[in-house]
Amino acid sequence: MYGKAFAPEYQGELGSALGVNSSYEEVLAKASHAHDRADTALERARAALAVAEANRRLGRVTEAGAAWRESYRSARTAGDAGAMAWALWSGGTLARQCGGLPLARRLLTHAVALADGSGDRLAHGYSLAGLAETGRIQGDYAAVAELHEQLLEQGRAHGEARHMVWAMSGIAQMHRNTGDYAKALELFEESARIAEAGEDARGRAWSLRGIADVLSVQGQTDRALDLLSEAEGICRAMDLASALAYNHKMRGNVLYRAGRYEAARDIYTLALQEFSEMQEPRGVALSRLGLAKSRARLGRDREATLSELAVLERDFARIGLRHARDMVIAFRAELTARPAAETPAPRCDATTLRSPAVPARS
Known about the structure:
Layout: H1 13-17, H2 24-37, H3 41-57, H4 61-78, H5 81-97, H6 101-118, H7 121-137, H8 141-158, H9 161-177, H10 181-197, H11 201-217, H12 221-237, H13 241-257, H14 261-277, H15 281-297, H16 302-319, H17 322-336
Helix pairs in contact: 2-3, 3-4, 3-5, 4-5, 5-6, 5-7, 6-7, 7-8, 8-9, 9-10, 9-11, 10-11, 11-12, 11-13, 12-13, 13-14, 13-15, 14-15, 15-16, 16-17
């Protein structure tokens, strides 16, 4: 059994004023007000943490970076190791969002140590979850698969719907990326049900996106697009800028698999603009790959496509995205295996790029 989803990153007076489904403009307004009225270092740390998280999810990475650092400094002044851990968790999550995976690992590793020493179970769990997520994004499934399972068991043991949704969708993503579509779909659908029952709208949006991805691979294009439209409505209602951009990128994937290359090109262009505006290099690179593939199907010069793929391969290697780099290599092999005048036909069961589904922490 599990209870309603909650947001432990909103602490002190903000914990009672805000919930997991609060829009991030509302979070930012209330957290900024609380910060202005804070009398103690700990109160400032808690308010700055909420400011950081709101800005991060709104795609304002510069403001988010300044806020989590302020939260950490204030927590250190207060001598509160748990609050320091929460600030580092926020900073590590921001680093991952911005493509700085080695920095994310360092910050989250420090957060785990601080949370462990402080006895803050939720900060410890979130920080471990962040480490698992970072490894999964890098494609290091062997290293983090067991940790995902442990986190799922912890969520079940404490009745925490939000944690269960996050861990379950992460496990589903690994199954999807290794070709076990049936298991991935089962887990994504269960994740969506738990999110709905726990009133975790953000978690449901990410889970629906995962379901749409798998259904699309299986050729169920219309159903996939309907689910993405439902998820998009949630993203817009909650001001989830990053999640909305990834939703659009996935819509591009669905259209591409269906052979609707012009529509895919247009939506990848939109996603690229959104990611660029929020300075999210991982999303930028993924959108550029989708755009390059769509343009290639529409007759773009093959040498120009190969040149762009070479740049993208270097970008993915630099960021540390193994699965994405493998997809660049696979598409290049398709292009070079055929005469230049031919446009290779898509394979509806081909593994295509998938950004991580992390409903609880993105």
